[in-house]
Records
---
Amino acid sequence: MERKKIIAIITGAISILIAVAYLILVFLLDSRGEMLPAPITDQLSVIIQQLTVILY
């Protein structure tokens, strides 16, 4: 009975550590600031410019 109790305490402690690590990770990712979308450029003109540089 004693071994089962020790294993239960250890797994509970591991679970709490994982939960705290997750909360810290979410806090750090959330504190980076507002998420801005990537700038939108005219992809076709960029591809054409790259092709003309390569071909000429």
---
Amino acid sequence: MTDQGSDRANYCYRHPDRQSFILCQRCGRTICTECQTPAAVGVHCPECVREQRAQFQSNRRASGAPSSLTVARRRFAMVDQKATVVIIAVSVVIWLVNLLSGGLVNQWLAYWTPLVGTQPWRLVTGLFVHSSFLHIAFNMLAVFIFGRMLENLLGTWRFLALYFLAGLGGDLAVSLLTPGTPVVGASGAIFGLFAAFFVIQRSLGNNAVQLLVIMGLNLLLGFLPGANISWQAHVGGIVLGFVTGFVFSKTRNIRQRRLQVGLLVAEAVVLVAGIGAAYLTVGGYVIG
């Protein structure tokens, strides 16, 4: 009787304890089902697969073809609303990481007035963290709809200025009205987008009353008992959205570019100074 245990050709070369009769189509070595990769004809072993990929990349470079990273960069460059896409992508990634961390990410990134002086990143990161699936789903849907329209109207950098200024407006309102309450979400910035879009549409002669009604109805939801919604951030975002939208509508001329930038910087300085003053006011707040 033949001792198959002594015939190593009948066993996977990577797993000597697994008997197999599957051969790599390229090198002829025995491989088990875990080690095989389907090919155009038959299957290949892991080493042959790595060699083929390396050869493919070498031929690709020799032929002058762009790398995968270059292709990805070119595709991203073709996207018209880059800032909107990045905001949504970052928010979704942070939400997923927060789930995996058991909520630790939200604790480190949420906006909270008593900590903003020593952890200033919370001024911005609070816009990217969310409490639940529905929270991030509705917020990102609003960013997707209004973000794309406003980014097309204003351009990427003006849109980003509007988004973060409205977010800071929401932070300031929270710091002044409810300084002891941690806040998460992009709602303040989103309400700023609503308000700015209304102002810009009106400046272009378009009827935007329906948007004003929608914004008002959404604002009222924050006052419902048990809603657990920061209406303060919404109000702050709306105020800054109106102000920033007004600035954009009155400085459209290219000759007013410096004035526009100066006014936006002034808004940011006032907002940060206001938040700083609120932080100093609650400096003795005991963090539990």
